[in-house]
Amino acid sequence: MSPINQLNSIFQEVFDDPNLVVNPSTSPREIADWDSVAQVKLVLAVEESFGVRFATDDVSGLDCAGDFLAVLAKGRGAAR
Amino acid sequence: VPGHRWGANVPLVETRDLLRFEEIQAGNVFRVTKSFGDAEMDQFAHLSGDRSAVHSDPETARRFGFPDRLQYGFLLASLLSRIVGTNFQHAVCASVSLDFVKPVAVGEVVDVRAEVTQVQEAMRSVVLKISMLSGQEAIARGKLTTVFLSGV
Question: HEC profile for B78-132?
Answer without folding.
Answer: HHHHHHHHHHECCEEEEEEEEEECCCCECCCEEEEEEEEEEEECCCCEEEEEEEE
